[in-house]
Design goal:
single chain, elongated, 1 helix, alpha+beta
């Protein structure tokens, strides 16, 4: 019997480690990465693994940009005692 191996790719982008694995369907890749204590995972559509990696790096940039804007908003307004900061929201995929 011949085992079918799925393509994998991992890397580091802006000090964030990410991993992608070829999905069940052709042209589908599963990804995962962590920013701080938050984990992000999902799927991207791409024929090539390098294109999927690029799309994951773009998602990482989007999360970091959102976190930076949230940090700016929190530093600009004084927090009241007992107030919790707004929750982080993962980026929305325009294709979903």
């Amino acid at each position: 019997m011949v085992e079918e191996t799925r393509a994998q790719h991992s890397g580091i982008h802006r000090s964030i480690h990410y991993a992608i694995i070829e999905g069940e369907a052709a042209g589908t890749w599963r990804y995962s990465f962590s920013v701080g204590d938050r984990n992000f995972s999902g799927t991207v559509q791409a024929v090539l693994g390098l294109l999927a990696a690029r799309r994951v790096r773009m998602k990482i940039d989007r999360v970091l940009r959102q976190n930076a804007s949230i940090d700016d908003q929190c530093s600009q307004r004084p927090e009241k005692e007992g107030e919790t900061p707004p929750p982080l929201v993962p980026p929305a995929d325009p294709k979903d």
